Amino acid sequence: MRAEIDRRAMAALSTGHLAVDFAGGALPALLPFFRDRFHLSYTLAAVLVLASSISSSVVQPLFGLWSDRRGAIWLLPAGVAVGGIGIALASAAPAYGLVVICVVVSGLGTAAFHPEGSKFAAYASGARRASGMSLFSVGGNVGYALGALVATPIVIGLGLTGGLLLMVPCLVVAALLLRLVPFLLTLAPHDRKAERRTLAGPERPGAMVLLLAIVAFRSVAWFGLITFVPLWEHVVLGHSRSYGAHLLALMLITGAVGTLLAGPAADRFGRRPVLMASNVVVPPAIVVFVLVGGIPGAVALCVIGPAVVGTFGVTMVMSQEYLPRRIGLASGLSIGLSIGLGGIAAVILGAVADSIDLRTALYVCAAAPVVGAALTLLLPPTRTRARLAPEIAPS
Q1: H or E element: which one contains 353?
Q2: Can you tell me the distance from the alpha carbon of 225 to that of 305, in angstroms, rounded to the nearest whole number?
């Protein structure tokens, strides 16, 4: 196992992650425009998030299994291209039903990219797994933020059909990844025995199930926020649609910074303490955003972003360490369940907002990480320093 991160490979993989999540990040920013154009309720607006989430999550473990058994590096460029084309066509679709279909297609691109991308990020990370996965994750965080930032001015200036331009950066990055496929293949172990030595350790499916439950409760908070922050600011508080998109982008950008800090912290202090800290700080920050708003509310979003987004890479590494011989499946479950349950939560929260009010739905988002914190106390450790040392020494 290499001791250091392969920077060239990680840059390519992180850029691919940026592009595929750029497409996903454009969707929340487009929701206020879809709501006005098609006269949608909160629930129907959230159904678009659910459509994206289900398509990008339900089949993601299947892509992971395919990756583990046969290898499928072509999913990297293909996933980025399909994700960008899908969201671009969704923005220009003339009917709500067509928007749903195009969003599903975009989600399938996300499902195709993530397991294979996560697996090669693990190969490129060497011994610094959490730090390397944070670099991979930060590409997605930045991409999601850029999607929210770029989609709004394009649609304001050119109308929803102008959203066809959203596919351009995705197609450029897909072409880049296609060119780099031969280089990336050099990172993979040449045989199954070498892969087992690289990814040594017992499999612990019970711990994996517990981790997935924690990921699920984190997703309730996160997907509720990315779905309803723009709508809260525009519909409830009366701010412009651009203002809500900017706040969402602020939360995502600070989350990218948090990702760069959380990975090294997890390598140094342990995965569980970092995960626990994130679950503890999110509930009061959401309450401040809802009750106080203004500058304190924006600052609260700057706390929520690093706390939640920063731990996506950490939980991905934990899942791979709980299932070390099936890291494609582990990555697919970790990311896929997070996205899928988050989309379901968004629809449920939309129904709460329609039947009661949006404020109550956001309070539910604040309550979910409390359960996640309680479950984190039950998590077993992943790898210890003592067990890592013999694996690193031979290289």
Answers
A1: helix 327-355
A2: 10
The values of phi and psi at residue 226, to 5°, are -70, -25
Residue 222, in any domain of the structure: yes
With beta carbons less than 8 A apart as the criterion, state whether 111 and 60 touch. yes
Lowest mean pLDDT among 149-158, 188-197, 231-240: 188-197
The answer to whether 301 touches 289, Cβ cutoff 8 Å, is: yes
Is the predicted pLDDT of residue 199 greater than 60, yes or no? no
Encoded tokens for 211? 């981790």
Tens of pLDDT, residues 51-85: 887 887 777 777 767 766 766 788 899 999 999 99
Looking at residue 344, its amino acid is I
Tokens, residue 86: 């899908």
pLDDT (average), residues 364-385: 84
Q: How confident is the model at residue 384 (pLDDT cuts 50, 70, 90)?
A: very low
Which distant-in-sequence residues (6+ apart) come within 8 Å of 348 by Cβ?
A: none
Between CA 375 and CA 211 the distance in angstroms is 8
349 in any annotated domain: yes
- CATH code, domain carrying 19: 1.20.1250.20
The helix (run of H) or strand (run of E) holding residue 58 is none
Domain of 24?
7-392
Q: For the chain, how many structural domains are there in total?
A: 1
Helices and strands of the chain, counted as H and E runs: 16, 0
Q: Cα separation of 375 and 369, whole Å? A: 10
How many angstroms separate the Cα of 334 from the Cα of each of 196, 242, 384?
A: 21, 32, 21
In a domain, 1, yes or no: no
Phi, psi of 311 (to 5 degrees): -95, 0
Q: Count Cβ atoms below 10 Å from residue 149 Cβ, excluding itself.
A: 22
CA separation, residue 179 to residues 24, 38, 74, 119 (Å): 24, 41, 11, 19
Residue with tokens 């708003």: 293
Residue 94 falls inside a structural domain? yes
Q: Find out whether 121 and 331 touch, Cβ atoms under 8 Å.
A: no
CA distance 289 to 299: 8
